[in-house]
Amino acid sequence: MEFPYTDETRGLFAARLAEFRRQAPSHEGGNDGTGAGDGLKHAAVTITLIDNGAGQTAFVLTRRTPRLSSHAGQKALPGGRVDSGENATQAGLREWSEEINLHLGEDAVLGLLDDYPTRSGYFITPVVIWAGAGATMSPNPDEVAKIMPIPLADLIRPDSPEFITIPESERPMLRVRFGDDQVHAPTAAVVHQFCEVVMRGRNNIRVDHLEQPVFAWR
User: Fold this and answer.
1) What is the pTM assigned to this prediction?
2) Tens digit of each residue's pLDDT (9 = 90 or more) over 143-168
3) Cα 108 to the chain's mean position, in Å?
4) From CA 116, how far away is CA 123, in angstroms rounded?
5) Contact residues for 67 (Cβ-Cβ < 8 A; gap 6+)
6) H and E: helices and strands count for the chain
7) In this structure, what are the phi and psi dihedrals at residue 27, rounded to the nearest 5 degrees?
């Protein structure tokens, strides 16, 4: 299955996100990505869609620098804490600009997916962004060790996603594979819902019950 980086693909993805009814968790005030927290800190991550250089759609994953105080060296979607006075969309665009040095306006946002509560004390709002033709990026060396474009076609494979049982939790742990690599929840949860809702058009997929590996609990 291919996902050409065209206006038609952008329109299809935007339409599917418009049809998707975001789940509003008890800690969230509404469907706009703002919320009271319920003891959790609010963060936003971006699934930013780019041309992979061969005319196909890819999303941007990063590897965090080993110098960071939390989750150092891990693979992650660009994102971070929602500041006071911001909504999730504004925070996602700001964090994208700070981490990847690409400056986009709110017209680049296609929509939002469900919040995901993490074991480390956050609820994450995923913001889906279409970067547009000619987008260029460079990593902020204080935060990002590597930019990793992942073709969407790599997510469509029979051995992914994987739902794994771990002794520390009754919840199924999620792992998503692409190429020769893999990610776990919370990144895997966001990517899995994007794949099902936006790429496949299955708008009833929820992921907030999916577990993270023990190393991500702190």
Assistant:
1) 0.90
2) 888 899 999 999 999 999 999 999 99
3) 15
4) 5
5) 142
6) 3, 11
7) -85, 0
